Structure formats: C-alpha cells, structure tokens
Amino acid sequence: MAYGSTILDQIGNTPLVEATHLISKEGVRLFLKLEGNNPGGSVKDRPAFNMINEALKRGDIKKGETLVEATSGNTGIALAFISKLLGLNMILIMPENSTEERVKTMRAYGAEVILTPSDIGIEGSRDLAFKLRDEKGYVLLNQFENDDNWKAHYKATGPEIWRDTEHEITHFVSAMGTTGTITGVSTFLKEKNKNVTIVGAQPADGSRIPGIRKWSPDYVPKFFDRNKVDQVVEVTENEAKAMTKRLANEEGVFAGMSSGGSVFCALKVAESIDKGVLVAIICDRGDRYLSSSLFE
C-alpha cells in the first residue's frame, strides 16, 4: 500500500475468484466478484462515492450540507461513512424490518437513521425522502434516478471484470435492485464485445430477497434500460437462501441473500451452455445478516 492513501482509495479493484465446487462442467467456468471486500462491505461503496464526489465537483452540494437518501441497507452504509469523510451530514431512511446490523453500522458512522413501516417497503422510504427534501431543503442524491450511480460501474466495475477475465467473459450475472450495477457493467462490456450476455436476477412472484427487486411500474429506476439486459432469470427466496448457504459451505464465500440469488441464476445459465466464462456479483458480506434467519 502506498503511503498517503486513504480509506476511499480502497474502493474498487475487488478480487475475482473462481468457484471450484459449485460447478464442475467442462468448458464452463464461474467467477465471483467479491464486492464485500470494499471498505464499507458492499458493491454500494462504488456508486455512493461517485454520486457524492461528482455532485461536489459540479457544485451541486457543498460541505456542511445535509443529504437524505432512502436505502434498503448497503447504499446507506456506504453513504454514511463516505459523507462524513467528505464533510457532509447524512440522514438515511429505511424500512423498519432492515437487519439490526445495518442500522447500527449506519449510526456508528454518524448518520441519522429514520425507520419507516415495513408494510410500505422501500417505496415508502423513498416517498419520505422526497418529502424531507421538499419540506426541509435537504439534498436528495436519489440513487434510483442518479446517472452517477450506474456510471460508477461503467468507469470501474466493468473495466475490472474485463481486465481480470483477460477479455474472455461471455456472461455477466447480477442481482437487479437499483439496477445501477447491471446497467453500468452492461454498458461497458457491450462496448467491448456486443456478444457478452447480460443476465439479471429477479425475485419470483411472492419472494422477498433483500437487494433483488421486481419494481412496480411507478418505482422502476429511471436510468434502467431493459434493452441492456439480455436475459432475466427468476429465483425464489428459498433458492436464494439455499445458494447463500452453499456459497459459505462449499466456496468459503460468506455473503448475503442477493449474492445467493445471483449465483443461483448463474448456475441456471451454466446448465444451458456448453462453453463460457461467467462472472457473478457477490454484493456484500454475510455478517450483515446474522440477526436474520438467513443462516439458521
């Protein structure tokens, strides 16, 4: 490590490791992008830093101002620690059924956390964020409409995957939440090779998987372009949970349920091809979910 580097310099360049036990199909290889190795513990460090940094550079926000954002967890943790380092105050709004670890982590970083009723979900948290922006004058980054979200992955995540697979990637698989990761990586990879297949993981009807969503029409992220996703694979809550446990038991990869969902979908794709190099995003670390029933 170079002298003078900061914690923010450690965002990105996460490891790409091969799954050696979950799959044993000749000609098909599966790699896992370990985003839990970011300093804030998730893939959301990338867009959180890019949204704040670019807004500061443009003069859209100034040091000392208060930001407000709705989050299901990981984006909030990233915004909490990055905003403090960059001289900003942070108010985070999230559903009350979010895991205790996430809420306590955000508060440890110095953010104010407001919990909204679980029955109105993240949509209700988003509505309150807009209300506070309008009534209190807080700055809303709005990760669901902010182009600096997906551009973080266009600038870094996509190029890292292209580099580390030595340009041989054939399939990219990602959970779809805010859709920033899949949008940015798809945009970059398609520029390099239009034949790379982009696969989005989506929850089956009736399934609740933190980090993977099937948005109602009014709440679909504004920057999401369905044309940038070649294939959508559905995963049930039980399938995502089972694969998350297998990741820990068989690959030593301790992650959250959205990662189990993306890897489940990657293995479904692997069953249908004879040759390929697949990369699945491991969104965060499993220690965010120890107070939940995920690992019981």
From TrEMBL:
Class in the EC hierarchy, top level: transferase
InterPro entries in UniProt: Cys_synth, Cys_Synth/Cystath_Beta-Synth, CysM, P-phosphate_BS, TrpB-like_PALP, TrpB-like_PALP_sf
Protein's gene: cysM
E.C. number: 2.5.1.47
Keyword NAD belongs to the record: no
NCBIfam families: cysKM (TIGR01136), cysM (TIGR01138), PRK11761.1 (NF008735)
Domain Tryptophan synthase beta chain-like PALP: from-to ranges: 8-284
The protein's name in its UniProt record: Cysteine synthase
Catalytic reactions on record: O-acetyl-L-serine + hydrogen sulfide = L-cysteine + acetate
Pathway: Amino-acid biosynthesis; L-cysteine biosynthesis; L-cysteine from L-serine: step 2/2
Organism listed in the record: Jejuia spongiicola
Needed cofactors: pyridoxal 5'-phosphate
Gene Ontology terms, MF aspect: cysteine synthase activity
Similarity remark: Belongs to the cysteine synthase/cystathionine beta-synthase family.
UniProt keyword terms in alphabetical order: Amino-acid biosynthesis, Cysteine biosynthesis, Pyridoxal phosphate, Transferase
Lineage top rank: taxon: Bacteria
